Amino acid sequence: MSQFEEKTIQSETIFKGKVIHVQVDTVELPNGNTSTRELVKHAGAVAVMAITEANRMVLVRQYRKPLEKTILEIPAGKLEPGEEPDHCARREMEEETGYHAASLKQVRAFYTSPGFADEILYLYEGTGLTRGKANPDEDEFVERVELTLDEAFAAMDAGEICDAKTVAALYLWKNKVLEGR
Question: Where does the record place the Nudix hydrolase domain (predicted)?
């Protein structure tokens, strides 16, 4: 056991939903004391940073109930059981935006909120885009939006772009532009 590791003594699932499961764990701390941890278990997700030939980022405008507002974000979605991230990235981008990418390359993977959740998000870059018709899920209402780098940063400054995955994608895009890639 490392000097920081917490040993699980007991684990209780308190909620099982379509998107998340919630469990409460009793843990032994490195100093021998016990504590409680509330954990959100998630299958993982993907997001796609897609830049068109016209040098515009493809985003979706979508209402987010936890925030009680509409925001702009890169196309993203939850992994289905047994689904590979590459397949999910392609599926989500095509469903939400109608765009097909000739090439999808994973550029990062990160945990969205490791203080209480195990969700890992795989961030992809989509290139060689061909525009088609979006086909969102029946409970998904989205509008495709395409912004230049400056417009996207202005949207972030205005609070329209406020989620971590899209903010990370904007800075990656900006770095690529500054490096001339």
Answer: 40-169
